[in-house]
Amino acid sequence: MMWRFDPLPEDSVPLMAEHNPGLVLLAVLLAILAASTLLPVLERCRSAASLRSGWGWVLAGALAMGCGVWAMHFTAMLAHRLPVAVTYSPGITFLSIVPIVLGAAGTLLSARLPLPRKHRLWVAALSLGLGVGAMHYVGMEALMAAVSMHYRPGLFALSLVVAVGVAWLGLGSNIWLLRHVRRIWAYLIGATILGLAVSAMHYVAMAATVFAPSSQGQVTGLAMDYQVLSILVSVAVTIIIALLFLAVLLDRRFSLISASLNSSEKRFELLAQTSESGIFTCEQSFDYINPAMSVITGYSEGELYQMPVSDLLGFDPDLEFTGRAQEEHLYRETFVTTKQGHHRWLYVTLGRLQSGAKGYLGSAFDITERKQMEQELRYLAFNDPLTDLPNRKFFMNRLSALINEWAQRPHPNPATPPFAVMFVDVNRFKLINDNFGMSKGDQLLKVIARRIKSALPRSGLVSRVGGDEFAVLFEGAPQVRLIERDAERLHQAFEQPFRLGEQEFFLSLSVGIALFHPRYRDAEALYRDATLAKERAKQQGQTRSCVFDAVMHQSAQGRLALERDLRQALKDEAFELLYQPIVRLPDGELTGFEALIRWRKPDGSRVFPGEFIALAEETGLINPLGDWVLREACRQIGQWQRNEGSEQDFYISVNLSSVQFFQANLIETVRSAMSEHNVRPGQLKLELTEGILVDDNPQIVDRMRQLLAMGCGIMVDDFGTGYSSLSYLQRFPLEVLKIDQSFTAKIKESTGLHLVRAIISMAHALELGVIAEGIESEDVARSLAGLGCELGQGYYFARPLSADQAGRCFESTEAAIGAHQKGHH
What we know:
It is a single chain. By secondary structure, the protein is of the alpha/beta class. Helix content is about 55%, strand content about 15%. It is built from 32 helices and 27 strands. The strands form 7 sheets. Strands 19-20-22-23-24-25-26-27 form an 8-stranded mixed barrel, surrounded by 6 helices.
């Protein structure tokens, strides 16, 4: 190319060229369009996560810019009309696209250079300007005509300076505009400046070119109509640029989606960083952990990343998910040991990562406190907290299991009883409570329990089944004479006085023994006969033992007579309801009543429900009896409303037995009773025992929701005496927990205080109200109020009252209840 700088011969006359204005304008527009694709791609390369991820954009942008500038050059050359025939060398024509593609690629790659912004801008401008210049002058070599070309050195150099300078201006203005105006305007203005830079360089370079006639004659070359060629080139390049522009728009769309995902990821990261639950991803080891994982386990992040997941959580995720569906999750309670050696329970949720990614996403919630609370409640359910002996429920469960095992034996031997029950009652223990107080009585019971356990063989299961009652279960084919000998040892052990401080107490026992017989079908029957034997021993005098025999079995037939009397009492409506006030603690403000049934005998005496409810449940008489209680309670509500006015706010709670709760017409009975007596929602509440709630029966939730829809609140009666579990408290729509009086009475003891506090805290955590039963002193009432117990009932406030007496409580709520209290204490 250097020969082109030779001066024009003196006898040569430069050829004058004409320009087609339309093609000139088209060339400029092509340059601007090419530049409009370069700038968005340049931004994508600048914001790419790595150079590797931006290679596709570098290649696409360089080709689009190269093709656009190449098309602009040849369109401008077609607009340049020499007075001689002109053709183009195909090889050089297509070769001329290489410099501008390389120059555009260099401009895009400069965005990733580790240089200051000012230096990167100059590198980009030099690469683009020199690429445009090289493309132009290589493309000029493709021209084939009977002319000779000469370049003016000054204008030649100026064309390159113009290309680089205006490229710097266009790129720099785009950077500035992106920070100050909307993105679309920054692209348009920057593309216009760059397009004009390319056009300016072209026409400065054309001004540096001199065409002179050549004596070589006609030059042969590619024979193609130049207008058709230019149109085909322009259309092809326009399509390429349009496709790339569409790709940029799509990428912009994807960028918005990516930004949204990044925002979600940051929110998730913030949630994970601040969450008290452990959050992690893992395969065989941890890939990510949040700070809470270190807090829960005591291990540092580095230690957790090096620790296999199975070592920490106690299970292998891959093995656990074998055979599971892709969308299925794993829920597990697992026991872990912290770095400090502490033991914690974690509730782990694990699921597979989506979108084809390997591994698992999981969370770990510390449920140690919940487990400890469940353990305490389980202990309460099956153990007596005072004596640390198994309680009646545990005893009866074990006895039931033994009876079921015996019934399933292929050839049981009825002649050899496989087990026996001993019932032990401490005589006249109530006198100690009455004279020395409950606290002294509790201390004495602890000593009694230890003495009973030490006097009996280790094979006997000793349980506390009542206030001063104990039961012993002998397994392993015990003989009557051996059990009687054990009973004699018990009596001898109680010949020694019990010493508490400076006081001595002399106590005696009444012992009943019942051996298993094939006629027993359930534990209650065998237990009942042991208690009957105890009663016979007590009738015979102090310090006696008695074995249940046929005579006692006959006397048990008296239960049949009781059943007949109960049926007749139902026909005669020989029942009445008493109402014990439920008050706000500690001031005694009336909130409602608990309805308590009594059986009026012809002689005027009253029979308490404990003497006939169990029989009523066994015989099915509980259903008509329970229906009567519901209707009578609703009738009384209606009467009090009429007497006291509609503004009086109160309720009556009614106990429902498990048999009554599951009867088919319960909902209709409640609805009919409420409707008949205009009972408003909230005025009738139903008390259920824990025995109903632990039953995994879907009918329970459905029935509760129907009752709630009618405005009947659900209370859990005698909470803590059965199988107290957080699972059913969360599963069922409950309103109130009623703390059993056995816990209320022990509130002055450390263990009792902690248990009552735990029950109240748990109830409040589940947004349940609390009623304490059996409050018998002001100190207990104030202690319960201090623990957050809202409501209570007991003899300290009032004994169960007749309907007339209870109605007078509305006249002056606090004064009326106080008056009843004084009358009964």
